[in-house]
Amino acid sequence: MKKVLTWIKPTWNGMHIGNYLGAFKPFLHLAEWKDAYIFIADYHSLTSVHDGETLRNNKQRLLAEYFALLPENSNITVFEQSKVTRINDISWILSSVTPYALMLRAHSFKDSQNKNSDINMATFNYPILMAADIISYDTDLVPVWKDQKQHLEFARDIAGNFNKTYKTDFFKLPDPIISEEMMTIPWTDGRKMSKSYDNFIGIFDSEKILKKKIMSIVTWSEGLEESKDPENCNVFALIKFFASMRQQNEIAAKYKAGNYGYGHAKLELLAILLDYFSEARTKFEQYMENPELISKRIAEWNTKANSLADQKYSDLMKIVGLDK
Description:
The chain is mainly α. It has helices spanning 17-31, 42-45, 52-69, 87-95, 100-104, 107-115, 121-135, 149-165, 207-215, 234-242, 245-257, 262-276, 278-289, 291-320, and strands spanning 3-8, 35-40, 76-80, 141-145, 175-179.
């Protein structure tokens, strides 16, 4: 069975529908009939999150959201990067075969260099730890967007450098599954839905906040009685992602018939979203109110991830001569 792995950094607070449609839902489909893993990249988040309470809260909410959204019969293992005890040891060994010149080409380093001259070493070493995250579990496939492609390329380069140096095929060179263009979720100004633009709809926002955000979507200026084009409307574009085909057809007919305002469409979108995520929102509240449920579930998966990494580390130590 092919092994597929992805990750998420707990540097934000709350998943929005763009995250869900563009990354989470596609991974669910990809994970079918595969040995699938998602790790919470909390070590990586330390490059930018420098407040312990903020990081703890972000992780707690992120895990509650993922557990709420995962189907009960899901075969996906979710684990914490920081609880894999050998991941930094593996990263250090990999750093010994990683050229300095390679790190200077890293996007994460260049971006930080352009934005801030005070670059921490975690940012500089980021690609090596990411390589360890990817190749320590004998990963076969890694889904990446075009702007994340370098992470996988670096992991392959670093694994290849190790194999060449020690004349072995110890590390697999995982293959990318590349989406040519990240799914763009429309919003008020034609830009993609993004937290950086502060134009997102959070899946687990309160109903009051959801309604406020949905009612603020910019629409055209036709009067209530006028016919409207559903295919040229931000509200209907969102409805199509979550409504059944029957609902879509019914709502499209209302647009064209007239006497149906954009306010009506926004209220229908609100109802559709609340219905679509009803079960997940209930489970999310249960996890947030009972954090011990999160702790119990993640502990089991952390143990599984450690077992894989421990074996890889043990074999790695033999190859490099540190086993005795």
